Fold this protein.
Amino acid sequence: MNAEDITSGETLLQAAAGGTLLVVDDDENIISALKRLLRRDGYRVLTATSGKQGLEILLRDMVDVVISDQRMPEMTGVEFLRQAKSICPDTVRIVLSGYTELASVTDAINEGAIYKFLTKPWDDGLLRASIHEAFQRKLLNDENRRLTQQLSLAKDQLQRQNERLQAALADQKMAMLLGEKVLRLAKDGLDQLPIPVIGIDTGSRVAFVNFAAMEVAPENTWKIGELAQLGLPTIVSECVRIAPVQFTIPELFGKGWILDARPLGTRDSPRGTLVTLIPVSPTAQVGITATTPTV
């Protein structure tokens, strides 16, 4: 980027306006010249006349870019910027020098203490361009850190959500296993009853038949999954429709029975109908009695 690019691209320079620049040089005239040059770019400019003073500023103030002279008493620019890196590792650091100490400057650049090396006397446009690039680099690094933090936070949140999901799935699995055990116990209990028990689901299909029911009826009378009105005796399938109900059947499968049909679940959440056949004397009177549903 040259001076003409900077002149025609003032809007780009404004992107870094408001950033803080620290100028360190033991020559007051150099500091004044740099402040006049950079005034148009909107930076907040802090100044120091020694490396020690510059470090004091870094300890108490937020600085985005540091530009330092190389040849200064007590502390060279490279030495100052090395210490500046320890204090403010995110600050972008530039050396401005009237002579070239290739060894020390190259080492400092290689170790990351210095972003760029510029020489005196400087070209105004190139100097402004270099400082602008340094601010853009700082803005980009800040944005990368922000995005990295957001990504890390999102990753942590996702991990916590995954852990909660895994815990919920484990609880659900345990509940399902417990439910299966309860169902098996219930089925085993119904199978042990000496009276026929038939379960009809909400779709009017045969869902369960205990051993006693299979023993009293002819083979294939009870077909699991078949519509009740197709496989069951009519009087049994009809009781499902009008449950809760209880009545006497004088003769079915060669015996008399009290047929009891009770809805399972609740009115808002029905789960089917449970039909039981209680053996009675063949001479018992036929009668129908409505019963209170079990909720």
Summary: Residues 85 and 113 are 6 Å apart (CA to CA). The chain has two domains: 3-147, 193-290. The mean pLDDT is 82.
